[in-house]
Structure formats: structure tokens, C-alpha cells
Automatic annotation (TrEMBL):
UniProt-listed Pfam families: DUF4283
Entry protein name: DUF4283 domain-containing protein
Residue span, DUF4283 domain: 86-173
Length: 276
């Protein structure tokens, strides 16, 4: 009896397997792929278009104190960082016009197109400045990478300089931060990866942002380029010692030259970029 039941089960399986398979609808395939592997192309693309997920938090009211009879209020640094998250100010830059600018309604359209921004930005007035709030890190980096844009409107060219915004941004002073390209010449091929390049940039020049496509694809190994955020009042090292410590504790090392692309001048007296 048990043998006959087992035989019937096997015959049933053979019959099922013999039937032609019906192709799943494309929509079902996408759903199945997303369930099995969350990091699909659609999800990866969506991740590049959205800022890092950081939770907004309610900040309690601060008590007022008095200094020589005048009101005073102060927040902790962590609270200010939370304000930036709450206000979605992750990728904010400042646009500065020296000789006037078009109407704000025109600027919202012109900056988006002429600065070749890939995603929608929020643009508003901040006294003598333009506050540009980007949605993409790539747009923010591209804006900061050029020393100046020329906004064309009604046959006029209005130069607009881009400044990095910080929580302590002073409307009366230009920031000392600049975004520049640096080149690492004659770097050994084993150090051409993003991680070692970022490590060298971070320890010597400033915060690394990204490498260029030639470096990423390793098609020009004789010169490695990385975009960094540096302080114009800081030191600009001309070279870095790169080495490997062997198991015998012996270090194989060499000097790698650091070259800087265009770095804006900053004048301490006027506290302005590009002006004395």
C-alpha cells in the first residue's frame, strides 16, 4: 500500500514537471526580485536621489537667561545639528551676486537649468545672498566645484559665486571653505582604490568628496584626482609619504606629490574670497 502511494506521488510530480512553464508577468518578476534582493536597480536609483535618512526630532523650548539685563539664549551643538536635519539643510549652498540679480522667480528657473542641476532645488533670498537647497549630494558638490557661474538673463551676464553654507555662516563674511580638485601623482596601482585615496586626502588636505571617473575606472593610473573640501586658511601640504608595513615590520615607502587645481584666494582683512 505504501509503495503504491509513493508511486502515485512520483507520477504526479512527473506530470507537473512535464507541464510547460508559464512566464511570469514582468510586474510579478519585479516584485519577486525586490522581495529576494532589496538592492535592485530601482532601489539603488532611488537611493541616489534622496538624502540620507535621518529622523526629525522635536526640540523643546529653550529657557531665556539674562546677561547684563539683556535676554540671551544658547543651544547645544547637537541641537543645532538636529535643527539642520529638521529643516532639510543637508545640501545647502549660498549664491552671492556682486552686481544685482534677476527676479527670484526667474532665478529659480535659470539656476536650475544653467547650472545643470539634476534634481529639483529650493531657492530663496537671504538678504544679499541666494539660499540654494539641493536634494542631491552630486548637485551640491557640482555647485561648489566651480568658482563662479554666469547666469544669463535678458542679454545680461550676472556672475554668481558659490559659497559653502555652515550653521555659523556670517552674512557679513565669506566662508573660508572651498571645494577643489587635488591630484596625487605617481601613486602605486595598489593604492588607486577609493578607500586609500580618501584616506590620503582626509589625513593631509581635507574632507574627501569623490574621485573623478578616470580615477574610478583606473584608465590613467599615473595621476589620481579627488575632490576635497579644504580650509583656505589652513596648510597646503605639497607631498605625502605612502608606505606598506611588511610582516617583518620593515616599511616600504615613497613620496607622492600633491598638486592643487584652482584654489580661491581669501583675504583675512576683508574676510572675502577673491577681494582685497
Amino acid at each position: 500500500m505504501e509503495f503504491n502511494q509513493l508511486r502515485n506521488v512520483n507520477l504526479g510530480l512527473v506530470g507537473i514537471l512535464a507541464q510547460p512553464l508559464r512566464p511570469l508577468p514582468t510586474l510579478h518578476l519585479w516584485k519577486l526580485a525586490n522581495q529576494l534582493c532589496p538592492l535592485t536597480i530601482t532601489n539603488l536609483y532611488a537611493n541616489t536621489l534622496t538624502p540620507p535618512i535621518q529622523k526629525t526630532k522635536w526640540l523643546p523650548l529653550k529657557p531665556i537667561t539674562y546677561l547684563h539685563g539683556e535676554p540671551k539664549i544658547a543651544w547645544e551643538e547637537e541641537e543645532v545639528e538636529q535643527m539642520i536635519i529638521n529643516g532639510k539643510l543637508h545640501y545647502v549652498v549660498i549664491g552671492k551676486f556682486s552686481y544685482g540679480w534677476p527676479e527670484i522667480q526667474d532665478l529659480r528657473r535659470l539656476i536650475q537649468k544653467q547650472c545643470e542641476l539634476k534634481w529639483k532645488v529650493n531657492i530663496g533670498l537671504l538678504r544679499l545672498y541666494i539660499l540654494i537647497r539641493a536634494s542631491l549630494l552630486q548637485d551640491c558638490v557640482n555647485l561648489l566645484s566651480k568658482p563662479q557661474f554666469y547666469i544669463t538673463h535678458n542679454y545680461w551676464l550676472d556672475p554668481m559665486r558659490i559659497l559653502k553654507w555652515k550653521s555659523n555662516f556670517d552674512l557679513e563674511e565669506d566662508t573660508t571653505t572651498a571645494i577643489v580638485w587635488i591630484s596625487l601623482s605617481t601613486l602605486p596601482p595598489n593604492f588607486l582604490g577609493k578607500e586609500p585615496v580618501f584616506s590620503m586626502a582626509a589625513t593631509t588636505v581635507g574632507k574627501p568628496l569623490h574621485v573623478d571617473m578616470i580615477t574610478l575606472n583606473k584608465t590613467h593610473p599615473s595621476c589620481t584626482r579627488v575632490k576635497v573640501e579644504l580650509d583656505m586658511l589652513g596648510e597646503f601640504p605639497k607631498r605625502i609619504n605612502v608606505g606598506m608595513r611588511k610582516k617583518s615590520r620593515k616599511v616600504l615607502e615613497r613620496w607622492v606629490t600633491i598638486k592643487y587645481d584652482y584654489v580661491p584666494k581669501y583675504f583675512k582683512t576683508s574676510k572675502l574670497q577673491g577681494h582685497n
